[in-house]
Design goal:
heterodimer; A: 257 residues; mainly alpha; globular; B: alpha/beta; Rossmann fold; Alpha-Beta Plaits; four-stranded antiparallel sheet; disordered N terminus
Chain lengths: 257, 326
Amino acid sequence: MSAYEIYIAYSTIVRKEIQRFMRIWVQTLLPPSIIMVLYFIIFGNLIGSRIGQMGGFDYMQFIVPGLIMMSVISNSYGNVVSSFYSTKYQGSLEEMLVSPMPNWVILAGYVTGGVARGLAVGTIVTCLSLFFTQLDVHNLGIIVLVVLMTSILFSLGGFINAVFANSFDDIAIVPTFILTPLTYLGGVFYSIDLLPDFWASVSQLNPILYMVNAFRFGILGVSDIPVGYSLLVICGFIIALFSYCMHLLNTGKGIRK
Amino acid sequence: MRANDHLKPVQNTMTHALEINQLHKIYDNGFEALKGISLKVEQGDFFALLGPNGAGKSTTLGVVSSLVNKSSGTVSVFGYDLDTHVSQAKCMMGVVPQEFNFNMFEKVADVVVQQAGYYGIPRDEALRRTEQLLKQLGLWDKRKEASRNLSGGMKRRLMIARALVHKPKLLILDEPTAGVDIELRRSMWEFLTRINEQGTTIILTTHYLEEAENLCRNIAIIDQGEIIKHSPMKELLKTINTETIVLDLLEPLATAPEISGYSLLLVGDTHLEVTLNQGQDINSVFVVLSTAGIEVTSMRNKTNRLEELFVNLVTNNKTDLQGVSA
């Protein structure tokens, strides 16, 4: 395949993926928006007003970056895991496997689909948050970079989950038992400075902490972790997960018989 | 992969459409599905790969179409090795699998257009080809329907349209007419014959041996992971020692007439079964019956000839293997 043909193959997957989540927007775009509005009302307005300030900002302002990241993470992951597993389950993955498309194009197409949904939901949640608080932009470059990298990382994670999943239950296990707890413990609702030293150190093993803090730095200019270090950690995870995804595709594990 | 790889000429100019050498497949559970099969399919051929359930047909086609990882051996498509020139080899073939494997929620036209996209065909061209194929296969009126709403026969035709959208030189069909009514089956045969005449090499597996006998010029029979017969259809059919023909008579008979050298059996009182040995022809029987004033209204084969041969070969193979294991 020439570079142009590869581009067409890639854009075919991306178009299909975007059409998929737009077609079922009631399942893909609406629920995270409603959930985040509830977070803003309950944690931000009702409880937040009693908490006061955190990290030098109103509690609402402090949690909004984390909540936006939470939406991006769960939707990027959820889009790829459900779409790729459905494709595998229905057998239509074979359409791609018999084609001359290189494996990395399949991966890139699905990851782009995940990123597109992550960004769509992230944008909606950001707009909704403006009804509750004022958001400043401390560093737009960092904001865009962190959102993109996080979205890519969790799209890759969703892909791995889909490859190993053998039932629809399997695609819910990781988000429920791993992703959600890590997100809640990743500094979305609190600064790790509040934790005892031991738990603060344990928290640093949680990759989501780095993403939430780097994103918070982009918006508020404060972070529990140096931003450069956060970006390096995210980058490392992306390389590791991408390599593993390619290994799975090239060996056909969970995909080919 | 380099961008201009597809421009490289095929190494061997006298290439086969498909060449399989010493293909082994052992599944993770230790089951040896293919025991070193070798197979050659000429360009432009209409080739049948037959075998009982679980013989290894679908595994063979799965390896060829890259859906099943082989354990060892080589596969090349129009001279392109599946290991070293996978992209070029895949461009050469279209695959129609046994099971429906398209997204049931997609519209009919989208299933075909997307497949074209995976082969790098620009969208305008993909839309043109999709229209052409859906019209040829009688699906154009259904183009905007969700594919899950199609009937079984229509779904099969959709998979054929999808497999042809990138204009492959080799079309692989795994039981394309399974569960399809006879009228539709015949129209599918006509379509496949037409594209074969236009130069597309076709390999099919089927359980309808009449289909293989009518359509295919060459045949391989696979059983328990081994090719037990690989020859032109005509030669294979010549090896049949006996053939039973049923004659329907106008008037009932009390006893079967006696014809020297021929075995005749009266079934009911208006059907005569004539068993012909190799070298005997039915004309001699007609002459005798005509002289005796017996009128024949119609005739047919008692069983499909290939079916008879197939059952014999597979039964013999099983007996041989049992003998070896004993």
